[in-house]
Automatic annotation (TrEMBL):
Destroys radicals which are normally produced within the cells and which are toxic to biological systems. The keyword Iron applies. It comes from the Bacteria. Mn(2+) binds at H27, H79, D162, H166. This is Superoxide dismutase. Its EC number is 1.15.1.1. Residues 3-87 form the Manganese/iron superoxide dismutase N-terminal domain. InterPro entries: Mn/Fe_SOD, Mn/Fe_SOD_BS, Mn/Fe_SOD_C, Mn/Fe_SOD_N, Mn/Fe_SOD_N_sf, SOD_C_sf. GO terms for molecular function: metal ion binding; superoxide dismutase activity. Gene3D superfamilies: Fe,Mn superoxide dismutase (SOD) domain (1.10.287.990), Iron/manganese superoxide dismutase, C-terminal domain (3.55.40.20). It catalyses: 2 superoxide + 2 H(+) = H2O2 + O2. The keyword RNA-binding does not apply.
Length: 202
C-alpha cells in the first residue's frame, strides 16, 4: 500500500511566529511530500511494498544497494517525528518523567540545553539533533543527512530537532543558533517525549 503524507498535528500557521506558515508550506508541503512520493516510487513492485515505514528504514539501512530507499524512507519517518516534537505554546522546562530522567542522566535542564544545542550546532551540513533513550538512560546524539537512531539497537528516539537549512532558513536565514534557541524555549513538545518514554516502558 502506498504511503501518504501524514497529517500535521496542528495547523500550518500554528507554530508562528517561531516557525512561519511559509516555512511549513515548503518544509512539510513540498520537502516532506517529495520524500513520500519518492519512497512510493522506489518500493513499488518490490518485496518492501507491504512493509511498515519502520521496517523499510531498518531493512534499507542494512543494504547499501538500497541507499536511495533508505534516504527517502528515513526522511519520511524523521520529519513525521519532528512535527510531533513541537507544539504551539511548547518549550521551556520539561515535566514528569522527562524532567526526572534529564536530572538523573544529563545533569539537569541547563546541561541538557547546552548539550542539545551543541549537537545541533556541530552537525556539519544537514542533519538532526536527538534526545534518545539508550540502554535505559537518556543520551543526546546527532545524525547526518537522513540517518536516524531508529536503526540503532537498544535506542529509542524521544525528541528531534531538524537542522537541515530548509527547516529554518526562511525564518532565521543562516542563524541556526537562533532557531535552536527558539526550538527549546518555545516549541519543544515535552508531552510527546513523555509519551515516548511511557511507550518504551521507562
Amino acid at each position: 500500500m502506498a504511503f501518504t503524507l501524514p497529517d500535521l498535528p496542528y495547523g500550518r500557521d500554528a507554530l508562528a511566529p517561531h516557525i512561519s506558515e511559509q516555512t511549513l508550506n515548503f518544509h512539510y508541503g513540498k520537502h516532506h511530500q517529495a520524500y513520500v512520493t519518492n519512497l512510493n516510487g522506489l518500493i513499488e513492485g518490490t518485496d518492501l511494498e507491504s512493509k511498515s515505514l519502520e521496517e523499510i528504514v531498518k531493512i534499507a539501512a542494512a543494504d547499501a544497494s538500497k541507499a536511495g530507499m533508505f534516504n527517502n524512507a528515513a526522511q519520511v519517518w524523521n520529519h513525521t517525528f519532528y512535527w510531533h516534537s513541537m507544539k504551539p505554546g511548547g518549550g521551556g522546562k520539561p515535566h514528569g518523567k522527562a524532567a526526572e530522567l534529564i536530572d538523573r542522566d544529563l545533569g539537569g535542564y541547563d546541561e541538557f540545553v547546552k548539550a542539545f544545542k551543541a549537537a545541533g550546532g556541530t552537525q556539519f551540513g544537514s542533519g538532526w539533533a536527538w534526545l534518545v533513550l539508550k540502554d535505559g538512560k537518556l543520551a543526546i546524539t546527532k545524525t547526518p543527512n537522513a540517518e536516524t537512531p531508529l536503526t540503532e539497537d537498544g535506542t529509542t528516539p524521544l525528541l528531534t530537532m531538524d537542522v537541515w537549512e530548509h527547516a529554518y532558513y526562511l525564518d532565521y536565514q543562516n542563524s541556526r543558533p537562533n532557531y535552536m534557541d527558539t526550538f527549546l524555549t518555545s516549541l519543544v513538545n515535552w508531552d510527546f517525549v513523555n509519551q515516548n518514554l511511557a511507550d518504551a516502558g521507562a
